[in-house]
Design brief:
Strand order of the largest sheet: 5-6-4-1-7-12-9-13
Number of helices: 8
CATH architecture: Alpha-Beta Complex
CATH topology: Spore Coat Polysaccharide Biosynthesis Protein SpsA, Chain A
Helix content: 25-40%
CATH class: Alpha Beta
Radius of gyration: 18 Å
Structural class: alpha/beta
Order of helices and strands: EEEHEHEEHHEEHEEEEHEEHH
């Protein structure tokens, strides 16, 4: 198995989820009997991910208290080490997606990392429910063999994102599709970024991310989308469409809907 680490983005305030998130961080809200973040850790452990790094800010101490430094689901022999990037403790607030990833790079890709996969890692939001997604070694191997800086999974547009985020090219002869940064007036279909992707460390370094020093020691806030669009314009982001169950658990209504559905209904 080609083991690479994964970063779980869990630092957000969850404003749209209030009042549920006033005393509980959104990744710890219950979905079908267990914390939302636990579903993702289980999937990462089953996929053979080497370790998880979780960034925190709002009520981050609750997340570390819930999962500790090793995730060991009772039903398997798997042990998934967990590290934390405490943005709230270090800088007083979340650093947004690119800023948070840059801050966590020393944990994701330590200086002693070596080999073909030492600069590759998964990234996913800690507030999506995607029970059937497989974090596969084959996806890692395919990405590692490419020249791309990122490979992302897109999903059909949910009702709350009617226009989507990015386009998707027709697959090339080699079976590769590109994520497209389409102009606002382009009529091509757009899809929504699932928040799941494979990334190379280089995307968060110069020349793509020039304003943030290694490890983001100044705590610079930076969104991911501008970096992604720049890389897309240079043909360096591949993509594929994911048609499995996927929910951005961003509002109390979506959370309630998930908890009222049976697993069969959600499939």
């Amino acid at each position: 198995m080609l083991k690479v680490p994964a970063m779980l983005m869990a630092a957000g305030r969850g404003e749209r989820m209030r009042p549920l998130t006033d005393a509980t961080p959104k990744p710890l809200l219950q979905v079908r009997g267990q914390p939302l973040l636990q579903w993702l850790l289980q999937a990462l452990a089953q996929g053979g991910v080497s370790r998880a790094v979780i960034n925190t800010a709002w009520l981050g101490e609750q997340i570390e208290a819930a999962f500790g430094i090793v995730f060991a689901p009772a039903e398997t022999q798997t042990r998934l080490p967990i590290g934390y990037s405490h943005e709230g403790r270090d800088f007083g607030a979340a650093l947004e997606t690119a800023g948070g990833i840059a801050r966590a790079l020393p944990l994701l890709c330590p200086p002693d990392a070596s080999g073909e996969y030492g600069d590759i890692f998964w990234v996913l939001a800690g507030d999506v429910f995607v029970p059937d997604f497989v974090f596969s070694a084959s996806a890692v191997a395919r990405f590692a063999a490419s020249d791309k800086l990122a490979h992302i999974w897109l999903v059909p547009n949910p009702a709350h994102v009617p226009r989507g985020d990015f386009g998707l090219s027709v697959a090339s002869a080699a079976g590769i599709s590109l994520a497209l940064n389409l102009p606002a007036d382009d009529a091509q279909p757009r899809y929504t970024y699932s928040t799941i992707g494979l990334y190379r460390k280089a995307l968060f370094e110069a020349p793509w991310c020039c304003d943030i020093a290694a490890g983001n020691p100044r705590g610079i806030k930076a969104p991911l989308a501008p970096l992604m669009r720049k890389a897309m314009d240079n043909g360096l982001v591949s993509a594929e469409l994911y048609a499995g169950a996927w929910t951005d658990v961003g509002t109390p209504e979506r959370l309630a809907q998930l908890n009222n559905l049976t697993p069969m209904d959600a499939a």
